[in-house]
Q: What sequence folds into this?
């Protein structure tokens, strides 16, 4: 093979790997937001579709004319670590906002054009007839704020586009005039559940788990081939979705697959083709993206007080833990006392326990600590963040690097 041909093959592999990581970070990607990334995904959609189907069992939909790509991810287990957010990096959606999101999505399918007032009216009428759904009254400022957060999320995904007026105007004025163009196809693509809610028997009483049943794995009586397929997909899904996968958190079938020669080969191949560095430890596995393309949040990171506090508390947990949660509250209080101009949002009564709780939530999200009852313990991956305090700690530090 000529040098030019080698370069072309290498370039194709690099494009596919980067596109895989991009889609993992942004499963609903539009040409308007990321034209360069979308151009690569459109160009390489066939190998990308095959990769996601083979290694993860996830469906990739690329619509070149409509200008979007949708990676339909089905989680290997329920998690609250990736909520919808009210603003970029803002507070997560609460139950009310998720409810309004479902109602809005359903009502937007009725017409290709609508106004904010008409949509609010339809949502109010739908809420009034749905059992167990609180009434929606746009007269209240809090209700309008929740409604606007939902509409802004739909705008970010291109499901609706404001062609006249701005959505934020509705915050201060119930009579604000905003005209929307609705992309009903994108509204439908928002739903990633393998089983549509409307097809569930007794949908109002059906458990959420019923939405994520995948027929390809054979249900209650799978064949050996289906069991192997589920093991491969479920393990690699977790590796792609979670910062670290501990072997003691896997089912016996998953752990056996990860330890088998076939499983190791598949995991290593998936990591290589997606451009990840695979770390294999005695306690578990993790994928490292050296370019941070697939990373939607970072640690360590000084962008938020909770993440700064998390790093400091983690060092304490690694060196002196497990510890009672009250001890971490005391450490957070000491931080606030030493730095009175820092973390202003926590510089009030009850601020220290809130800071400690938010810091522990960060550590738990990154797979670095685990809380059992009133005690908190660092997990093995936390050792890599241990502070090297000098020659006296050299031996201990070397041990943690091999952990």
A:
């Amino acid at each position: 093979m000529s040098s030019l041909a080698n370069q072309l093959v290498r370039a194709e592999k690099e494009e596919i790997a980067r596109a895989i990581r991009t889609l993992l970070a942004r499963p609903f990607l539009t040409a308007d937001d990321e034209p360069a990334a979308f151009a690569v995904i459109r160009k390489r959609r066939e190998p990308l579709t095959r990769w996601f189907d083979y290694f993860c069992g996830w469906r990739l939909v690329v619509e070149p004319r409509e200008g979007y790509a949708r990676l339909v991810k089905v989680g290997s287990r329920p998690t609250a670590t990736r909520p919808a957010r009210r603003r970029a990096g803002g507070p997560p959606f609460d139950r009310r906002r998720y409810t309004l999101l479902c109602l809005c999505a359903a009502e937007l399918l009725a017409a290709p054009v609508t106004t904010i007032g008409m949509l609010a009216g339809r949502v109010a009428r739908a809420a009034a007839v749905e059992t167990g759904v609180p009434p929606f009254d746009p007269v209240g400022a809090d209700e309008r704020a929740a409604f606007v957060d939902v509409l802004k999320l739909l705008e970010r995904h291109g499901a609706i586009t404001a062609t006249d007026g701005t959505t934020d105007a509705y915050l201060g004025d119930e009579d604000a005039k905003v005209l929307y163009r609705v992309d009903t196809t994108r509204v439908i693509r928002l739903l990633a559940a393998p089983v549509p809610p409307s097809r569930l028997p007794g949908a109002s009483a059906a458990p959420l788990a019923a939405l994520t049943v995948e027929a390809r794995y054979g249900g209650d009586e799978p064949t050996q081939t289906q069991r192997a397929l589920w093991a491969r997909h479920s393990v690699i899904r977790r590796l792609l979705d979670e910062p670290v996968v501990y072997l003691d958190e896997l089912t016996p079938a998953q752990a056996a697959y990860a330890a088998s020669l076939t499983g190791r080969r598949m995991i290593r191949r998936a990591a290589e083709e997606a451009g990840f560095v695979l770390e294999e430890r005695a306690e578990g596995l993790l994928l490292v993206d050296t370019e941070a393309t697939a990373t939607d949040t970072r640690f360590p990171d000084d962008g938020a007080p909770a993440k700064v506090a998390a790093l400091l508390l983690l060092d304490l947990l690694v060196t002196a833990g497990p510890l009672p949660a009250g001890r971490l509250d005391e450490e957070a209080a000491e931080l606030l006392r030493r730095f009175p101009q820092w973390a202003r949002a926590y510089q009030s009564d009850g601020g220290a326990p809130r800071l400690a709780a938010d810091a522990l939530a960060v550590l738990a999200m990154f797979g670095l600590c685990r809380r059992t009852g009133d005690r908190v313990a660092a997990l093995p991956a936390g050792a890599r963040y241990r502070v090297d305090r000098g020659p006296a700690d050299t031996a201990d530090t070397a041990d943690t690097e091999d952990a």
In short: Residues 19 and 37 are 7 Å apart (CA to CA). Confidence is low (pLDDT under 50) at residues 393-403.
